[in-house]
C-alpha cells in the first residue's frame, strides 16, 4: 500500500492542496477525478517527486518516502531522438550495458506493439503511438508505480477506448500500481474500480464508481458528477417541499437542494405508489436504448433518462420516485 499522508501544497498565497490523505492498494489502478484547476497535476507532481509539498509525505508500505514515474499528458518525448533513443534514455543514464539495454528495448517494444517504429522521430508518430513510446520509456525502468496525467485526453474516442484496454492489460502484465488523474469521469470509471474525487484541493469522496453515482457525499461531488437535476426547496424536520417533490427525504446536509439523478430515480406509471403528473416536452435519443426526456412537473422542467419509446412528446404521464430522494 502507498500512503498519501496529509499532503498540502501552497504556492505564494494560494493554498492548492489541503491535507490530502489517501491509501492506494498496490497492483491496482487508482483514479483521481476532479474538475479543471482542482489540483490534480499539483498532486501528481508531488507523487512523482517533481515538486515538494509544503506539508505531508508520500510513503510506501515500509514508511519510506516514495516517488513514482510520470507519464505526461503531452508525452514529452525528446523530439531530436528516435523511438529507440527515447525509450533507452533512462537506461543510458543508469549506464546499463549495451547488450542488456538492447534486449530490454526489444522486449518492451514488442510488448507495446511498436517494434516497427524503432527508427522514427516523435513528429513521425500518431498520438497513440507517442503514448505507447512514452509508456515504454517508463516501463523499461522496471518501476512499479506509474503516474499518468490526463493520459487519454488528446486521443479520439476509438483510440481512447483502445488505450484504456491496453493500459489495463499492462497493469496486469507488469503488476503495476497506476495512479492517474483525469477530469473525465467515464475514463475514471472504465479504468479503475476506486476513484477519489478532488475538488478545490480536497478529497471529497473515495469510492467505487457505482457508489459515487448513487451516493455522492455532498453537493459539490453531485454537481461535479453531473447527470442530475438540482431542485431548490425547503426542509422542515424530514419533510421537504419543492415544486417537483414534496415529502420524506434522505437528508445528507441541510441546505435544501433536492438531488434528482437523470436515471434510476423518476419512474413511470406505477400506480401503486403516490404518483404525480408530468408533461413530456421533448425527448432525445442518447444512443443504446435510452432517451433523455424533458418533463414539466408542476411548472418545473426536469430531465430523466428512460428506455426508448416509453413515452410520447406532448403527452402527460404519471411518475413516482423509486426511492426516497436525497436532499443536500
Ligand atoms: N505555481 C503556482 N502558483 C500559484 N498557483 C498555482 C501554481 N501552480 C498551480 N496553481 C493553481 O493551483 C490550482 C490547481 O492547479 P493544477 O494544475 O494542479 O490543477 P488541475 O486539476 O491539474 O487542472 P487541469 O485539469 O486544468 O490541468 C489552479 O488554480 C492553478 O492556477
UniProtKB/TrEMBL annotation:
GO-annotated molecular function: ATP binding
Domain ABC transporter: 2-225
Stored Gene3D superfamilies: P-loop containing nucleotide triphosphate hydrolases
Listed SMART domains: AAA
Swiss-Prot/TrEMBL keywords: ATP-binding, Cell membrane, Ion transport, Iron, Iron transport, Membrane, Nucleotide-binding, Transport
InterPro entries listed in its UniProt record: AAA+_ATPase, ABC_SmlMolc_Importer, ABC_transporter-like_ATP-bd, ABC_transporter-like_CS, ABC_transpr_FbpC, P-loop_NTPase
Name of this protein: ABC transporter ATP-binding protein
Coiled-coil segments on the chain, per record: none
Amino acid at each position: 500500500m502507498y500512503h498519501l499522508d496529509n499532503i498540502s501544497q501552497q504556492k505564494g498565497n494560494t493554498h492548492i492542496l489541503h491535507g490530502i490523505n489517501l491509501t492506494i492498494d498496490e497492483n491496482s489502478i487508482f483514479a483521481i477525478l476532479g474538475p479543471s484547476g482542482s489540483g490534480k497535476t499539483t498532486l501528481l507532481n508531488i507523487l512523482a517527486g517533481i515538486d515538494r509539498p509544503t506539508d505531508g509525505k508520500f510513503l510506501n508500505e515500509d514508511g519510506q518516502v516514495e516517488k513514482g514515474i510520470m507519464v505526461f499528458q503531452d508525452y514529452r518525448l525528446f523530439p531530436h531522438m528516435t523511438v529507440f533513443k527515447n525509450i533507452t534514455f533512462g537506461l543510458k543514464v543508469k549506464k546499463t550495458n549495451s547488450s542488456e539495454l538492447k534486449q530490454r528495448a526489444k522486449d518492451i517494444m514488442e510488448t507495446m506493439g511498436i517494434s516497427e517504429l524503432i527508427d522514427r522521430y516523435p513528429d513521425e508518430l500518431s498520438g497513440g503511438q507517442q503514448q505507447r513510446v512514452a509508456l515504454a520509456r517508463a516501463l523499461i525502468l522496471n518501476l512499479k508505480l506509474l503516474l499518468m496525467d490526463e493520459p487519454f485526453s488528446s486521443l479520439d474516442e476509438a483510440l481512447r477506448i483502445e488505450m484504456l484496454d491496453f493500459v489495463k492489460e499492462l497493469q496486469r502484465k507488469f503488476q503495476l500500481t497506476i495512479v492517474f488523474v483525469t477530469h473525465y469521469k467515464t475514463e475514471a470509471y472504465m479504468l479503475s474500480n476506486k476513484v477519489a474525487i478532488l475538488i478545490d484541493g480536497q478529497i471529497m469522496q473515495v469510492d467505487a464508481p457505482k457508489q459515487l453515482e448513487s451516493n455522492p457525499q455532498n453537493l459539490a461531488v453531485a454537481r461535479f458528477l453531473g447527470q442530475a437535476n438540482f431542485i431548490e426547496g425547503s426542509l422542515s424536520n424530514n419533510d421537504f417541499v419543492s415544486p417537483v417533490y414534496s415529502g420524506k427525504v434522505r437528508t445528507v446536509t441541510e441546505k435544501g437542494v433536492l438531488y434528482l439523478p437523470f436515471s434510476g430515480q423518476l419512474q413511470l406509471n406505477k400506480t401503486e405508489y403516490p404518483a404525480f403528473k408530468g408533461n413530456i416536452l421533448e425527448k432525445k435519443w442518447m444512443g443504446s436504448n435510452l432517451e433523455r426526456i424533458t418533463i414539466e412537473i408542476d411548472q418545473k422542467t426536469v430531465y430523466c433518462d428512460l428506455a426508448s419509446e416509453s413515452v410520447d412528446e406532448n403527452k402527460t404521464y404519471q411518475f413516482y420516485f423509486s426511492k426516497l430522494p436525497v436532499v443536500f
